[in-house]
Amino acid sequence: MHFIDLDRFISKYVTEREKSLFEQDLNHYHDVLSDRINNASILVIGGAGTIGSSFIKAMLHFHPSRLYVVDINENALTELTRDLRSSYHLNIPEDYKTYPMNMGDAVFEKLFRQTGPFDIVANFAAHKHVRSEKDPYSIQAMIENNVFNAKKLLDLLLERPPKHFFCVSTDKAANPVNVMGASKKLMEEVIMSYSGKIPITTARFANVAFSNGSLLFGFLQRYMNRQPFSAPTDIKRYFLSPRESGQLCMLACVLGASGDIFFPKLSTETMKDFAEIGTRLLDELGFVPDYCRDEQEAREKALNLSAGSVNYPVYYFKSDTSGEKPFEEFYTEEETLDLDHFEKLGVIKRLKSISLDEIEKIFEKLHALFSRETIEKKEVITLLTEILPTFNHMEKGKSLDQKM
Q1: What phi, psi does 366 have (nearest 5°)?
Q2: b/e map of 243-268 (b: 16 or more CB within 10 Å)?
Q3: How far is CA 400 from CA 132, 264, 323, in A?
């Protein structure tokens, strides 16, 4: 089996950047970052995922006094600790603890009330996959996690407000076409309704190359299992490296004004399609793609892969699943931008937020729908469209779970 230097591969073939996109901003604001992070107590929720752990690593280039990490994935928390303690030049505080728990549970409230306040609170706990939109059950779970739990967390933070609160969003919140993007857009509205009470920022950003659960990460898993690669040819995406994703979130969290939504300044020329990256990866691993007509042929050829074979089966196709936007965008024409304050970060300035009273009325409608014994997916879509005028659901009758 071939070894691959993943960081080098991402730099050379995915982002095509030798240095971090945010290097100039990091250098320019280094002293401000040091002043606000050194000796700070930090709580990171959903911190064991790719973006959360990258945020933690970015913060640990400074000297916080306390770091608590909460995540429902106990195994991932264990690996996070191993990774941090095996890395060079990270300043892990003596008061470092990980907690496998859900931020929506009573035990989390007990933890916060008895160990807070924290100077910096960052929330990365979210349903992040378009594929999580399948039926009313999966949609309700997504909205409960991305929206209801975000408000519950903010109500808790009001008791002991942090100096900085960050909650991650997604590029898919700009003109959303899938429920995941709509849930994140609604999450933005919810957290911004608190921006007069707590210093709040968020960020919409590109795909994080080889992040846990992503299609690129899936390529590595398929290779490990000697299974075929499968990818759309007509979906282009912007990409950040995992390290850049953490730096973006740190800059947004610590430097943003309350209500700011950050995004990376990336040119459309940098967009890549997944099949292109899959082919590059196979070349790096010493293989030539063996193009297959359908999933069945790809599986059969993978089953018969010999030890010395240089041909690797791939199935590349046109996208035909619900909610897959063919391109990415970070902002809409109606949003006000600040493109001058940072070198490689744009900022959407929130001029007006929905009031908390309006948020409560929205929640009443959602709770009323979800409290029914039986609901249909289209009813949730209709309500979300009523709540979010920019939501234009793209329904094709097929979920990503029906694809290889």
Answers
A1: -65, -45
A2: bbbbbbbbbbbbbbebbbbbbbebee
A3: 9, 27, 9
Q: CB–CB of 248/264 below 8 Å? A: yes
pLDDT tens profile 329-342: 889 888 999 999 99
Residues pairing with 99 in the sheet: 70
Tokens of 322: 């619900």
Q: How far is CA 336 from CA 265, 333, 347, in A?
A: 15, 8, 8
Give the pLDDT confidence of 273-287 residue by residue, as tens digits.
999 999 999 999 999
Distance, CA of 337 to CA of 79 (rounded, Å)? 39
DSSP notation for 172-223: GGSS--SHHHHHHHHHHHHHHTTTTTS-EEEE---EETT-TTSHHHHHHHHH
Q: In 10 A of CB 310, how many CB atoms?
A: 10
Burial label for 231, CB within 10 Å (0-12, 13-18, 19+), is buried
pTM of the model: 0.93
The tokens for 391 are 């939501």
State the pLDDT at residue 363.
96
